[in-house]
TrEMBL record, chain B:
<dbReference type="GO" id="GO:0005829">
    <property type="term" value="C:cytosol"/>
</dbReference>
<dbReference type="Pfam" id="PF02798">
    <property type="entry name" value="GST_N"/>
</dbReference>
<dbReference type="GO" id="GO:0004364">
    <property type="term" value="F:glutathione transferase activity"/>
</dbReference>
<dbReference type="GO" id="GO:0006749">
    <property type="term" value="P:glutathione metabolic process"/>
</dbReference>
<dbReference type="InterPro" id="IPR045073">
    <property type="entry name" value="Omega/Tau-like"/>
</dbReference>
<dbReference type="InterPro" id="IPR010987">
    <property type="entry name" value="Glutathione-S-Trfase_C-like"/>
</dbReference>
<comment type="function">
    <text>Is involved in the conjugation of reduced glutathione to a wide number of exogenous and endogenous hydrophobic electrophiles.</text>
</comment>
<keyword id="KW-0808">Transferase</keyword>
<dbReference type="InterPro" id="IPR036249">
    <property type="entry name" value="Thioredoxin-like_sf"/>
</dbReference>
<dbReference type="InterPro" id="IPR045074">
    <property type="entry name" value="GST_C_Tau"/>
</dbReference>
<protein>
    <recommendedName>
        <fullName>Glutathione S-transferase</fullName>
        <ecNumber>2.5.1.18</ecNumber>
    </recommendedName>
</protein>
<dbReference type="Pfam" id="PF13410">
    <property type="entry name" value="GST_C_2"/>
</dbReference>
<feature type="domain" description="GST C-terminal">
    <location>
        <begin position="87"/>
        <end position="215"/>
    </location>
</feature>
<feature type="domain" description="GST N-terminal">
    <location>
        <begin position="2"/>
        <end position="81"/>
    </location>
</feature>
<comment type="similarity">
    <text>Belongs to the GST superfamily.</text>
</comment>
<dbReference type="InterPro" id="IPR004045">
    <property type="entry name" value="Glutathione_S-Trfase_N"/>
</dbReference>
<dbReference type="InterPro" id="IPR036282">
    <property type="entry name" value="Glutathione-S-Trfase_C_sf"/>
</dbReference>
Length: 228, 218
């Protein structure tokens, strides 16, 4: 089923999938910046990618894709940087300080690489591999907690790029906890405080899906993949 | 005060990126060669999470990950030789392809010189396909950045001196498959910042050959 995108009315379109934390990053950023946009759900992401997605992201064929005046930008962190470059009058995601920017980029990379590795293993693996994945995940959350320190946000006083990048994963916490039998609050209480603080923000509470729905989805996804 | 130290390893294509960026900007710095089998306390202190090079230390503060370092250098020393384009969309494209290089080229190259038998043919094909995609992105431009040498050129050119080793182990020619890419690489090498930053391809070959022996690959 093809979707007609009317680009005259909305100059910003984002192609996403409702469970994708990477798509949530972009949506939260657009909300924070007050940029009007059209969201397009890539309904058949796993079985039958749309012509629009394949045309806009031929290299990786993944979501999210930002389409601005018909031109695609891919990869969530690159999209966030693009949003800051273009819409920078009201609110910027990145710090003005170059060192802080470099640190934020470092931590987003660090987390993205970690979660790509241990995220799936926590819900798809069993036994020792699952246990190891859980331990690595907790260790990385603790490192992030250290980076947060006593500040309200990773961006210091302001909700910044690292906050935007990480908060979408909080809706997967329930899933990880259910599969691996642990409580993130117990391991990283300060991080959970930060999660609650972020959820008070309109952009976050509007965009993040219900964690129970995510868990349901993962159970269904596992069945679909034939993993028990 | 502007104290700049680079922790690096001579053969690293990622380290080469930083050397080139610093040279483009005319930044004076202290180069410290790391023995990767015996990492220095300084490296472990400055990059405790990954313990990898390159690490740039600017006035005592560490920055890790080569593309992050290059962007940092571009932002801080912004009076000359801009590396990223000024147009936001062009910047996003440059970052996209640099990210693509990081995700694809290193692993594909690694497979070429460690794979055996049938796997080797598949590895070579994958590597060449990736280079061809980059060659298409280059098009008819003198540099990936257009008329001027920039961020994306820096992201890729560190792999060029490694081609000789890969071609020898894999028994193929990058130039035969991607002539425009080699043309681009050679014109990059005419820049002093590049020629003095790239490792020697024969030395890289010897280094890789030694490594293959210890890994038991023939």
């Amino acid at each position: 089923m093809s979707k007609t995108i009317v680009l005259g009315e909305e100059e910003v379109v984002i192609i996403g999938f409702w469970t994708s934390p990477y798509a949530m990053r972009v949506q939260i950023a657009l909300e924070e910046k007050g940029v009007p946009y059209q969201y397009v759900e890539e309904e058949n992401l796993f079985h039958n990618k749309s012509p629009l997605l394949l045309q806009m992201n031929p290299v990786h064929k993944k979501v999210p894709v930002l389409i601005h005046n018909g031109n695609p930008v891919c990869e969530s962190l690159i999209i966030l940087q693009y949003l800051d470059d273009v819409w920078n009058q009201k609110y910027t995601l990145f710090s003005h300080d170059s060192y802080e920017r470099a640190k934020a980029r470092f931590w987003v990379n660090f987390f993205d690489n970690k979660i790509a590795d241990c995220g799936r293993r926590m819900w798809a693996s069993k036994g020792q591999d699952q246990e190891a994945a859980k331990e690595e995940f907790i260790e990385s959350l603790k490192l992030l907690e250290g980076e947060l320190g006593e500040s309200p946000y990773f961006g210091g006083e302001k909700f910044g790029v690292l906050d935007v990048a990480l908060i979408p994963f909080s809706c997967r916490f329930y899933t990880y906890e259910m599969f691996c039998k642990f409580k993130i609050e117990k391991e990283c209480p300060k991080l959970m405080e930060w999660v609650k603080r972020c959820n008070h923000r309109e952009s976050v509470s509007k965009i993040l899906p219900d964690p129970y729905k995510i868990y349901s989805f993962v159970l269904h996804f596992k069945k679909m993949l034939g993993i028990d | 005060m502007n104290e700049v130290i680079l922790l690096d390893f001579w053969a690293s294509m990622f380290g080469m990126r930083v050397r080139i960026a610093l040279a483009e900007k005319g930044i004076k710095y202290e180069y410290k060669e790391e023995d990767l089998r015996n990492k220095s306390p300084l490296l472990l202190q400055m990059n405790p999470i990954h313990k990898k090079i390159p690490v740039l230390i600017h006035n005592g503060k560490p920055i890790s990950e080569s593309l992050i370092i290059v962007q940092y250098v571009d932002e801080v020393w912004n009076e000359k030789a801009p590396l990223l384009p000024s147009d936001p969309y062009q910047r996003a494209q440059a970052r996209f392809w640099a990210d693509f290089i990081d995700k694809k080229v290193y692993d594909a190259a690694g497979k070429v010189w460690t794979a055996k038998g049938e796997e080797k043919e598949a590895a070579k094909k994958e590597f060449i396909d990736i280079l061809k995609l980059l060659e298409t992105e280059l098009g008819d431009k003198p540099y990936f950045g257009g008329d001027s040498f920039g961020f994306l050129d820096i992201a890729l050119v560190g792999f060029y001196p490694w081609f000789y080793a890969l071609e020898t182990f894999g028994n193929f020619s990058v130039e035969a498959e991607c002539p425009k890419l080699i043309e681009w690489a050679k014109s990059c090498k005419e820049k002093e910042s590049v020629s003095k930053s790239l490792a020697d391809e024969k030395k890289l070959y010897e280094f890789a050959a030694e490594k293959r022996k210890t890994m038991g690959i023939e």
